[in-house]
Write a structure and sequence with these properties.
Elements (H helix, E strand, L loop, with lengths): L6 H16 L2 E5 L3 H4 L10 H17 L8 E5 L28 H12 L10 H6 L6 H17 L7 H13 L10 H18 L7 E6 L10 E5 L9 H11 L1 H10 L7 H16 L34 H28 L1 H14 L1 E3 H8 L17 E4 L2
Parallel strand pairs: 1-2
Antiparallel strand pairs: 3-4, 3-5, 4-6
Helix pairs in contact: 1-3, 4-6, 6-7, 8-9, 8-10, 8-13, 9-11, 9-12, 10-12, 11-12
Length: about 400
């Protein structure tokens, strides 16, 4: 694209002229949304005009293929298919769409094998186990994971990469780098410890939570003063209402621990509250999990951002009474989960104190030692231990 009108369309014509001369050939356009955005999306005068002319020329060239031009194939890639002009997706143009989604378990293992060829692996490395612990990772994330593990091995003066290097690398990619220079005072450190243990105790019981692998009060990343790492054992594509409610209760476990132990609350649960509220709202407005409002979708049916990125869709036009009913339902879901977390922690108050005291001494509890401690958690009423997994990284903001 250029400032001068007509340059973009001229380049498109030149591109296809070269393609016809080189036929059979493939024309590949990367980041198609740069010139293929919907013409109804608006924009600044001049720049948008030129972009539209370029798009119009592309449409004309793709429509103008004659029989002898059939050996010219046009491919394009984009991360934002929802903003493309509908004319681009009509039959005869880009009428076949191939989704390159995040890899599943077997895909992650295959990608790890490719990137692991570049490094020397230790005898204890199990790529299948690493693939299990990295749900949601894209190919670039896995490449970065192998690179981080290799750097950690080099820093520790080892000639090969061990399984423990991959474990630390996963935490670096998910939670960020350790910030040992960020020194907390004793009061803050104590609050963070109880907060994270609260997440772990509730998460070990609630359905919809993964297995708690590690509790740490070592600050990481930009804002996390501590974190509880829960990892799944398999890929999940569907979740029921009980599992979603369990996730919300786990998110509120940290704040609940603060209330019980210190009889006050801090700003550390800000991110947990945001995620819990968003999840509860989706349950009501998107998933139809409200007996009062019924199986209705209250979110506008716009095409979501690719791979789940971007802002959520706005609500539909509705009456004030319906909006108030939605707010009441969201509040009821969050408050019920909050009470579940409080009841669980009150019943296990002695265990909460014991693990928090130990965490203050060691800063990190993980592995079999952590699993042994969490196996002592007692369930309240109908709460049962579940191995159904979900990735949940909770940290004090």
């Amino acid at each position: 694209m250029e400032l001068f009108v007509g340059v973009g369309s001229s380049r498109v014509r030149d591109l296809f002229e070269q393609a016809k001369k080189q036929a059979p050939c493939i024309v590949f356009i990367d980041e198609l949304d740069a010139i293929g955005k919907s013409r109804s999306s608006g924009g600044f005068y001049g720049g948008n005009d030129e972009r539209e002319q370029t798009l119009n020329q592309l449409l004309a060239e793709m429509d103008g293929f004659s029989a002898e031009d059939a050996t010219v194939i046009v491919l394009a890639a984009t991360n934002r298919p929802e903003v493309l002009d509908p004319a681009l997706l009509r039959p005869g143009r880009f009428d076949r769409q191939v989704l390159v989604d995040r890899p599943d378990l077997s895909g992650r293992e295959a990608i790890l094998k490719i990137h692991a060829r570049k490094v020397k692996l230790g005898e204890d490395v199990k790529l299948a186990a690493i693939a299990t612990r990295t749900p949601g990772f894209a190919g670039a994330d896995l490449a970065n994971l192998v690179n981080e593990a290799a750097l950690l091995a080099a820093r520790n003066q080892r000639s090969d990469v061990a399984q423990e290097d991959f474990a630390e690398a996963i935490e670096r990619v998910v939670a960020g780098l350790e910030k040992k220079s960020r020194v907390l005072n004793d009061k803050e450190k104590k609050i963070v410890a109880y907060h994270e243990v609260g997440h772990a105790l509730v998460g070990s019981l609630m359905t919809g939570s993964g297995r708690v692998e590690k509790i740490s009060i070592v600050p990481r990343g930009m804002a996390a003063l501590g974190y509880t790492l829960q990892l799944p054992t398999e890929d999940r594509f569907l979740m029921d209402e009980a599992e979603l409610r369990g996730q919300i209760a786990t998110l509120l476990g940290g704040r609940s621990a603060e209330e019980i132990v210190f009889n006050s609350i801090t700003t550390g649960a800000a991110n947990d509250l945001q995620r819990a509220t968003d999840l509860a709202e989706r349950m009501v407005t998107t998933y139809g999990m409200s007996k009062i409002l019924g199986p209705l979708a209250y979110q506008q049916g716009q095409q979501p951002m690719f791979l789940g990125d971007g802002m959520p869709n706005p609500r539909r036009m509705m009456s004030e009474e319906t909006a108030q009913a939605i707010d009441r339902e969201v509040k009821e879901i969050v408050e019920t989960a909050h009470q579940q977390a409080l009841d669980t922690l009150k019943l296990n108050r002695d265990l909460l104190e014991a693990i928090a005291t130990q965490l203050l001494e060691t800063e990190v509890i993980e592995g079999e030692k952590l699993h042994s401690l969490l196996s002592q958690v007692q369930a309240v009423n109908n709460l049962t231990v579940s191995n159904r997994p979900n990735l949940n990284l909770s940290g004090v903001s």
